[in-house]
């Protein structure tokens, strides 16, 4: 399948890559409302580069270090070989403007773990 946004990649090659899908970032989530995750915490970018180039936003799911999140059925445990520890809350997806959220790249999520995360995120869009 051809990527309809390939021209965007070609034009922007070599620029920052922190917004790539699977990047683990630190991000300031305040202000937050209700049950939304708050404060500065790690998150994983689940949107692709084309989404960022078109919107200047990234979609992220937050990571919690709370053991209370361990057994929630759609949370994903990060592997022990990652620097970042905790549980990916796939039900806590949100779009953010990284230029306003003090984003910093930490590391890349392994492909196998990213696949699990995306599987749960995509389930929320099924009809």
UniProtKB/TrEMBL annotation:
Pfam families: PemK_toxin. Keywords: Toxin-antitoxin system. One of its GO terms (molecular function) is DNA binding. The keyword Protein transport does not apply. One of its GO terms (biological process) is mRNA catabolic process. InterPro entries: PemK-like, Plasmid_toxin/cell-grow_inhib. PANTHER family: ENDORIBONUCLEASE MAZF-RELATED, ENDORIBONUCLEASE TOXIN CHPB-RELATED. Belongs to the PemK/MazF family. This is PemK family protein. It comes from Lentilactobacillus parafarraginis F0439.
């Amino acid at each position: 399948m051809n990527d309809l946004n390939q021209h965007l990649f070609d034009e922007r090659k070599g620029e920052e890559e922190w917004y790539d899908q699977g990047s683990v970032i630190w991000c300031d989530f305040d202000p937050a409302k209700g049950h939304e995750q708050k404060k500065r915490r790690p998150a994983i970018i689940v949107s692709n580069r084309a989404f960022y180039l078109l919107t200047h936003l990234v979609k992220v799911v937050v990571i919690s270090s709370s053991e209370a999140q361990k057994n929630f059925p759609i949370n994903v445990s990060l592997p022990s070989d990652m620097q970042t520890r905790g549980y990916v809350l796939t039900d806590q997806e949100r779009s953010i403007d990284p230029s306003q959220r003090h984003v910093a790249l930490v590391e890349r999520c392994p492909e196998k773990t990213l696949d699990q995360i995306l599987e749960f995120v995509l389930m929320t869009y099924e009809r």
